[in-house]
Amino acid sequence: MDLSNGSPVITDPMAMGQQLMGVLPSNMMPFSVMPGGYSSAGGAGVSVSRRKIEEVLVNGLLDAMRSSSPRKKHNVVFGQENLPEEDPAYSAWLAKCPSALASFKQIVAGAQGKKIAVFLDYDGTLSPIVDDPDKAVMSPVMRAAVRNVAKHFPAAIVSGRSRKKVLEFVKLKELCYAGSHGMDIMTSSANYEHNTEKGKEANLFQPAREFLPMIDEVSKSLLEVTSGIEGASVENNKFCVSVHYRNVDEKDWELVARLVNEVLEGFPRLKVTNGRMVLEVRPVIDWDKGKAVEFLLQSLGLSDSENVIPIYIGDDRTDEDAFKVLRERNCGFGILVSQVPKETEAFYSLRDPSEVMEFLNSLVRWKKHSV
Ligand SMILES: O=P(O)(O)OC[C@H]1O[C@H](O[C@H]2O[C@H](CO)[C@@H](O)[C@H](O)[C@H]2O)[C@H](O)[C@@H](O)[C@@H]1O
What we know:
37% of the residues lie in helices and 15% in strands. The chain has helices at 13-23, 50-67, 73-77, 88-96, 104-109, 140-152, 163-170, 212-226, 253-265, 289-299, 320-329, 353-370, and strands at 28-29, 115-120, 155-158, 176-179, 184-187, 203-205, 233-236, 241-244, 270-274, 278-283, 308-314, 333-337, 348-350. The strands form 2 sheets. An 8-stranded mixed sheet has the order 6-5-4-3-2-11-12-13, sandwiched between helices. Strand 2, helix 6 (140-152) and strand 3 (155-158) form a beta-alpha-beta unit. The longest helix has 18 residues, at 50-67. The ligand O=P(O)(O)OC[C@H]1O[C@H](O[C@H]2O[C@H](CO)[C@@H](O)[C@H](O)[C@H]2O)[C@H](O)[C@@H](O)[C@@H]1O binds next to strand 8 and strand 10.
């Protein structure tokens, strides 16, 4: 990836306007009205009152919140007595996005003689989704599995969390960390041991650095406006901010959407995307987890797509950017962690973090036997 032509920060108002008109991938929910009259509702030139635009934005956001947040009722369907495989829709989906465990032989057959690099999302992938984001700890057995992976393969964590926070959870120095959805990348010197370019120092890459004061400001405003909503919480992830609504009564979701919209009106260079019961506020820059993976591959000396197989495992919409990059590079593949059928750019699937651990352990066993 060549960044020599400039930074990913978008300064051209037309380019920002295009993003707001829906040029971004579908998971991106542009949210601010541009001074030039762009709206995510209809694009340039559509004359609607400001109030109507606000309604469209709030309703759009609310729809996204509802559709992207399968509530606990789904856990009943896919609870212990009712495994996803027993659901006909899930079985049909598995035919399109097969289990990475069931396809393991095929996966490693394609990796013979090549170098595998492993990229791991954190929440929902290495730790189960829990109600309290501060309690999303990683189990000791999962940590051991990730440590072993990092011993045998170049490996990185790519998370929406702040880099500091995700490191506190993972507690392993052997990996690279890309926090804030890839906007805060630290390559580990230990990771270079896997590479041809030995002896390189750890490096820091922060393409959205100039947004730091703005993110702090918006984080404070979001905290203030949502403080009266029971169950809502705001997490400052350094280069992006999460507004959690998992513990908010569904009748108050509209209020959350409305308040976030109101705050974002004062920040035209920020946008909001939605994840698993979370609204993620971040800079409008041309950077995402996919770009972060490309950056890491290049900086770790692993960009030779003929001989390197990157594997990216993640559960969230933001991980789709990474799946897409691997699909487009035609090397390596994404693995989606999901208990429900989803549209995805991933080639394979795993049901939950326990299957992720099984897959990681299988990779390590295979590597040990293939040397
Ligand atoms: O890219 P990720 O590592 O998957 O981070 C995405 C968001 O993950 C966290 O929120 C999610 O997990 C929480 C704990 O299980 C859960 O309570 C929340 O509902 C989920 O959305 C994290 O707290 C967010 O800041 C990240 O953006």
